[in-house]
Every structure is written in C-alpha cells, then in structure tokens.
Specification:
By secondary structure, the protein is of the alpha/beta class. The chain is 39% helix and 17% strand. The chain folds into two domains: 193 residues, Alpha-Beta Complex (Spore Coat Polysaccharide Biosynthesis Protein SpsA, Chain A); 85 residues, no CATH class. Helix 9 runs antiparallel to helix 10 and helix 9 crosses helix 11. This is Glycosyltransferase family 2 protein.
Length: 333
C-alpha cells in the first residue's frame, strides 16, 4: 500500500502546456517520496488543462476561469492540497533527480529555518541566480539609479540584491526565496495567509519572504535541491515584461515601506529607468512609468488590459521569479 503524500507540489500554468507537462513528468520521475501534484490553469487558451488531464490521471488540475495572477493562482492551488508541506514549482523547470527529496529531507532535519529554496541552473548548466535575491534597500536602489549596479555587476557592495558572486552552491540564509522553487510547512503558509493577492505578477515572493522573516522564519538555500530553469525567451527583454517587474517592485515598496522611504524608492526606480532609456526596452519602461509606479492593483489595469494579451507566454511563465532590476539590465546594456 502506497504511503499518503506528505508533500504537495503546486504549479501555476498560463499557456505553458508543453513546459508544464514536462515539469510534472520530471518531478514525478525524479522524486522518490510520494507527492500530491496540483496544477492551477490561469485561463490558458492553448489546451493546457485538457493536455494535463490526458497525460496524468493522478494530477489535480484546477481551472481558475481566467488569468487571476500568480499569487492568487498559488493560493488557489494550495487550497486544493492536503499535504503537510507545500512546494511551489515553476512550469518552466525540470527537477533534477533527488531535488525534491533533498529539499524535503533538509526541511525535516532542520525545521528551524521554516522557508526553503534550492539551486537553479540554466539549460546550459551554468548557475541561474534567480532562486534567491537580496532585499531592496535605499542603497540598492541608489546603486540602480546611478548605474553602479550595472557597472559593478555581481558586486556585493554595488549590486547587493544579486548577493555577489555566490553560486548558490552552499547552504546559506538569504532574504528572498523566489517562487520557482519554494518549500514551507502548511502551518507556516496558513499563518502567513499565503501570497498577498494584491500582487498580480512579480514581487509576491519578495513580500512573502519578508513576512516570513518577520514571523521568525529564516529563508535558506539548499544547494542539493537543484532544478533546471528555462528563464528567458522571446519576451525576456520586452519593455512590457520589464514594466511588470517594476510594478512588482513598486508594490513591494507601497506595501512595506514608510511613506517617505517609499517616495524616495519610487523616485530611484524611475531614475534608473531614465538612465537606461537609450535602449528600446527601458525607453518603454520610462514611457510607461505612470502605469507601474503606483504598483498593483492599479498597474494591473494598465499593464494587463485583457486576459488574452495580459500575461507572459510560454517563454516567460506566470511563476517567473522577480529579478533585481540591476540583473535584468545586463542583457539590455
């Protein structure tokens, strides 16, 4: 008789049919512990829900009925699970053999941390730093606004949100665990109230990690929990996508910073966009600053005018992690 799953995998899908089917198949093939898998489909129009049901008779597919965003999609997925541990996983990831077993085993052995992430690799095998980030501060935003974070890439001093040149290959406490691979106990998830649904896309994991730290959890990276993350693609350098990133950052400032610091932080974000506006991507971000600087929910109406044209496609799925703007600019300059 099979053991009941104690770990639930939650994936939010938006027009990523083939990637999500692969992600589910890999996590099933490469994990030894019993899993409960729930996929939330955010109103895809590529046949994702039907394809997932046809491919897996033991995966729960929840149709959201529309593009409700990543935070709300994750919350909906968790409500449809029963396991005592929750693992968020991106649809554009492939869990390597033993990755989920490793992060679960570490969490069971070291429950004092409470919030766990892993190591992500790009398809070419190089480190993708997006499994975790440093927290935004006035200094990090000043470095972005003045170009220091681009001039001194991966500098622990001038690009602090990148966490320096650390390859995510050692156990280390970090400020932010991103949603591409995140584990926490159901008890902690419920105590935190899940993801803040004021966030539509980007920034929700930074907010979740901040609230977790305030509750006494200690976000930590487990390097043996390694996944391949296909970040990028045709939309990764678009002005709209970068405006979404900025909207997520602005929402973090609006929801957690004091009024004076918030005004200064938004001004620094705008200054950084202006500094880079010679590129087409950042020219769009600068031109659309009124659309993103107030954060969500206002930014949602401006940046996502309709479900059909609202979200990233398969190359940049709903659950893509928020990246520091300094890091994102590296492909732009």
């Amino acid at each position: 008789m099979n053991a009941l799953p104690s770990v639930a995998i939650v994936i939010v899908n938006y027009n990523t049919r083939d990637e999500t089917v692969t992600a589910v198949r890999r996590v099933r093939e490469n994990t030894r512990i019993p899993l409960e898998i729930v996929v939330v489909d955010n109103g895809s129009h590529d046949g994702s829900a039907d394809a997932l049901r046809a491919a897996f008779d033991d995966v729960t597919v929840v149709e959201a009925g529309g593009n409700i965003g990543f935070a709300a999609g994750v919350n909906l997925g968790v409500r449809n699970t029963t396991a005592s541990a929750i693992v968020l996983l991106n649809p554009d990831t492939e869990a390597l053999p033993g990755a989920i077993d490793a992060i679960v085993g570490f969490a069971r052995a070291r429950p004092e941390f409470g919030l766990y992430g892993g190591r992500t690799l790009r398809p070419d095998g190089t480190t993708d730093p997006s499994s975790c980030w440093g927290e935004m501060t006035l200094w990090s935003l000043f470095a972005f606004a003045t170009g220091l974070s681009t001039l001194f890439k991966s500098s622990a001093v001038f690009d602090p949100e990148s966490l320096g040149r650390w390859q995510r290959d050692t156990v280390r406490e970090v400020p932010i665990i991103t949603g591409c691979l995140l584990l926490t106990a159901r008890e902690s998830w419920e105590a935190l109230g899940g993801m803040d649904e004021r966030f539509f896309l980007y920034g929700e994991d930074a907010d979740f990690s901040r609230r977790a730290r305030e509750m006494g959890l200690r976000p930590v990276i487990v390097p043996d929990a390694t996944i391949v993350h296909a970040v990028g693609g045709s939309t990764s350098s678009s002005g709209l996508k970068m405006s979404m990133v900025m909207a997520g950052k602005a929402t973090v400032l609006h929801t957690s910073w004091s009024p004076m610091r918030r005004r200064l932080g938004i001004a620094l974000l705008q200054a950084g966009a202006l500094l880079r506006s010679r590129s087409a991507t950042w020219a769009t971000v600068w031109r659309r600053r009124r659309d993103w600087r107030d954060g969500y929910p206002r930014a949602r109406a401006a940046l996502f005018p309709s479900d059909q044209a609202s979200g990233p496609t398969a190359s940049e799925p709903m659950g893509a992690p928020i990246r520091t703007v300094a890091t994102a600019t590296r492909s732009e300059e």
